[in-house]
What we know:
This protein is an alpha/beta fold. It has two domains: about 10-175, Rossmann fold, CATH 3.40.50; about 180-315, Glucose-6-phosphate isomerase like protein, domain 1 (Rossmann fold, 3-Layer(aba) Sandwich), CATH 3.40.50.10490. Helix content is about 45%, strand content about 15%. Strands 2-1-3-4-5 form a five-stranded parallel beta sheet, sandwiched between helices. A four-stranded parallel beta sheet has the order 7-6-8-9, sandwiched between helices. The longest helix has 22 residues, at about 295-315. The mean pLDDT is about 95.
Amino acid sequence: MNSPIDKSNMYKVLRDFPLQFGKALAIAAKIKVPKKNYSNIIVAGMGGSSMPAAIIETYLGKNLKTPILICQNYDLPPEANSKSLVFASSFSGNTEETLSVYKECHRKKIQMVGITTGGELAKLCQKDNIPLILIPNDGIQPRCGTGYMFTGILKAMIGAGLAPNKTAEIEATAKAMAKMSFEEEAKKMAQQLLGKLIIVYASEKYKEIARICKIKFNENSKVLAFYNYFPELNHNETAGFTNFGKENIPTVVIILRNKNDHSRILKRMEITADIIREKGGEVLNISMPAGNPLTQIFGTLYFGDFLSYYLALGYNTDPSPVEVVEYLKKRLKE
């Protein structure tokens, strides 16, 4: 049940999240992307609109035969060429960086696919006859539409022969998530995070999942949070805990653990947790849920959504609006 603090009813948005997968599958199944020998896939998107590409790369891993690149800028990356496939990804359809990349692609005649709820991007795609995945405009924040965006892009990739057919696994993940019940655990853990700096750690394989969880703390809870990954963090960041107790900064480290991580990574996680606690820090372990690989990924992110949601309520903060980000955008237009 949502709180009066939650004026935009993000609680309902979170509860309805599993429904996004089936809706997006039906929409993207109608999109025809030319089958070509693409040299790479580029997803041009900012914020929540870039998350799907990171999840796809994490999920498919070695099964992704065509490299996927994330473009978070006004210009195409150096790797872009006439054989690239570019997904112009903007939840609102009005992201200025994505629109800039769209215009560059159109000028250079690079194959594109648009994915958005509407806005200027939808208008351009319709005018230029570019394949368009038009997802529902439910009035939600872009970071809450990852199910739509992930599924839409992946389904289009499948249709173009650029990814193995994972439709059944996507449907199974949606069903599994609809049955997940961890609200009480999220509420309890959120209380342990209040008033503390948050750091999220994961293995290199799941570093993007740690990054997205960090983003949810930033945007939902409106707090500073950071992330890093094993084993790299043990070669530098771990030294930062040497004077941890002297700095007197209440900190909690969240470690995302997957039982299938390399045995040496799991041992590193245990030793690192011991070091942090010895130096005065707090460690909370989150075990990625059982199920197929996609369920493990989205189940972890789903818990992160609820955890950051309840942390926002703990700070008496509405989790939906990102007023500072909107203020910055307004200043850029001056």
